[in-house]
Design goal:
Elements (H helix, E strand, L loop, with lengths): L1 E2 L5 E2 L3 H9 L11 H11 L4 H23 L17 H20 L8
Antiparallel strand pairs: 1-2
Helix pairs in contact: 1-3
Amino acid sequence: MDVTGRGLVNCRTASHWEWAFGMPHKRAHVMVPENLLSEIDALVGQRGRSAFLVEVLQQEVNRRRLLQILNSPEPVWKDEDHPELADGAEAWVRKMRDQEERLGQEKLGEWWDRSE
């Protein structure tokens, strides 16, 4: 969302257009307390309600999914999923840098002087 200098929020952003035209959607009847609806309207206007609510709901779904992952006893990082790091991260980084150096020399020759 784009916050303007007047403290207003413009909900007609790329996320609005993606929501409006980029994916199928269904109408849902949602009850919102009147005072909260007034605050939303003050921020985005009546025509920006749906896009605003979709954006907020998506953020909350993402937050709750992340919390589920973080609270899960199952480890997120598994060493067997990253065999390239078996010799340690430092060795992997050195290998990547050496590979970049070798490819630079092969492709660019004398122009690839990185000693300066």
